[in-house]
Amino acid sequence: MAHIARKRFGQHFLTDKAVIDAIIDAIAPGEDQAMVEIGPGLGAMTLPLLQRLPASSQPLTVVELDRDLAARLRKRGDLTVVESDVLKVDFGALAQARGQRIRVVGNLPYNISSPILFHLLQYVDQVVDQVFMLQKEVVDRMAAGPGGKDYGRLSVMLQWRYDVEALFDVPPEAFDPPPRVDSAIVRMTPWATPAALDEQLLSELVQSAFSQRRKLLRHSLGRWLEARGYTGDFDLHRRAEEVPVAEFVALAQSL
User: Fold this and answer.
1) How far apart, in Å, do the first and last CA atoms of the chain sit?
2) How far apart are CA 202 and CA 173, in angstroms?
3) Is residue 94 helix, strand or coil?
4) pLDDT given for residue 19 in this prediction
5) Alpha carbon 55 to chain centroid distance?
6) How far apart are CA 132 and CA 27, in angstroms?
7) How far apart are CA 175 and CA 44, in angstroms?
8) What local confidence, expressed as pLDDT, does residue 161 receive?
9) Which tens digit of pLDDT belongs to each residue from 20-46?
10) What are the φ and ψ backbone dihedral angles of 159, each rounded to 5 degrees?
11) Has this prediction a pTM greater than 0.85?
């Protein structure tokens, strides 16, 4: 029986074979790697991934919330199915079960893509890389450099921990049903030696900086720093979007 896409799960199934092949090429699954796919759906990426992975070791784990789709995938017998909300999945435990760091891939549900990215951030030490399909607008924000309207909190919070690379765009007609937005593929590779800092502090700092992005930082971040007794020489006569990631990181470290 054909599966009807469920709106509440944000389901849009990838059907364009050329696009699927390009994504699998970008992932480039390797022989001895443990892979986790988020939101496998009808298996558009799952099946080509399995074809490139050794059949004997069940190297692919899939995380699927839709119980009908999970049941369908479980019948295959050649992959591990985790039937769960991805925001409740312990990716560290998945890596531990495999005895190695994992590669995480998937067509993320667009309605909760940012929460998923922040959820994964806590397991970054257990991850080799992440290759995702997301709304193009989100990928533009993730990969943006300072100086433009796309650069913001998401850019800074991800780029301090990952090398973020926008790979290519995917048009709506590659899906069934077609989403109302363009999509894009992004690769996120954790930095080998990230800056040591308090992530919660950086998050609060960046949130404060971008809370009034049209105004100079002295109106937002300046007051936040003043409340913490900061006496350094960070230049507050700029807008938040003009400050490179490295400077936000250095400020968090100095605090």
Assistant:
1) 58
2) 39
3) helix
4) 93
5) 27
6) 9
7) 10
8) 96
9) 999 999 999 987 889 999 999 888 899
10) -75, -20
11) yes
